[in-house]
Amino acid sequence: MFKDFLVERKSWIAMFVALELLSLFIAYVDPTLPVESLLYIVFLSSCLFLVFLFYRYHKETRFYKTLKETNLTTSSSIEAERPFEKMVRDTITLQATELKKDISFKQNSLEKQKDELLSWIHEVKTPLTAMQLIIDRLDNKDSKASLQYEWLRIHLLLDQQLHQKRIPFMENDLYIEKVDLRQLVFSEIKTLQSWCMQKGIGFETVFEGSEVLTDAKWAGFIIRQLLTNAVKYSNETADITIRSFDYNGGTVLEIKDFGTGISARDLSRIFDKGYTSTSKHHDNKATGMGLYLAKKAASPLLISISVISTPGEGSVFTLTFPKRNAFNELSGM
What are the structural domain ranges in the chain? Predict the structure, then answer.
């Protein structure tokens, strides 16, 4: 900070040096003035000026050091001795107060929008349920299959939107318990049944490790996103392989599809928000949110998601559930 202080006071320093040089110049051109005595005076005044400079450095920078280490919420507690320091402190405090009011207003507005959207989603589920009952009564198999597929798409999009709004507050909604992974996976497969039948996709499942410690609702959401992604990009009549096994004290779930795969340039970005693909920009059905939300929801659950993919051969998404002792603080178990 001393360097910054010198830069800030360079005009003072330049003025002092100019005055001292002027004194020496006058003594040089005026033979009546003793140069040696004037040099002695310049030396003493320079020493005094250096002492004054160091004193002012400690005096003036104390306020700015405190200001640098203080956040906006505690700016009003900064000690200010001089008028300009008080002016700076009061201005910052006033701006901080206005910013807090603005943030509070925007948070309330966002919270209101979130509540309205969640209410709307729940309202839409009522006609969706009625539509499902109507579809179930249809006799035409082709029409029934097509309508069931479109119904499922709407259901999945609403479900994704619902969880997207809940994710920022999901830690308040967690209930950590022992969950049967096999039952959870089969429940999600059943949800996608009509879509899988339309594409002729089947499932091969092997569960060597089935019990995990997690939140069933959120874990189901994560698995749903991975299964939806696998079904969407799988080739028709290609099966999806699902297996689980115990590894290093935790449980691993692998979901393997034999679809288009993911290019190397996309692989590092597939979990980014809104990212779809560099090779499939014509795919208007992709929202770029499924894998992003899955990754986002996995973090509070201490679930690790990884992927291995080969273009043209398919992808393997791996969920690694945490060890039991990793959840001691969250579950109290």
Answer: 2-69, 138-331
CATH 3.30.565.10 fits 138-331, yes or no: yes
List the pLDDT tens digit at each of the 333 positions of the chain. 778 778 878 888 899 899 888 888 888 888 777 878 888 888 899 999 899 888 888 877 777 777 776 665 665 566 666 676 777 777 777 787 888 888 888 888 888 887 888 888 888 888 888 988 888 888 888 888 888 888 888 889 888 888 888 888 888 888 888 999 999 999 999 999 888 888 889 999 999 878 898 999 999 999 999 999 999 888 887 889 999 998 888 899 999 998 888 888 888 888 888 777 655 544 545 667 889 999 999 999 999 999 999 888 899 999 999 876 665 555 544
Copy the structure tokens of residue 15.
């003025």
Q: How far is CA 31 from the centre of its chain?
A: 76
pTM of the shown model: 0.67
Those residues with Cβ within 8 angstroms of residue 253's Cβ, 6 or more apart along the chain or in another chain: 181, 185, 223, 242, 243, 244, 318, 319, 321
Beta bridge pairs of residue 247: 250
Residue 240's region, left for phi above 0, alpha for psi from -120 to 50, else beta, is beta
Letter for the amino acid at 110?
A: L
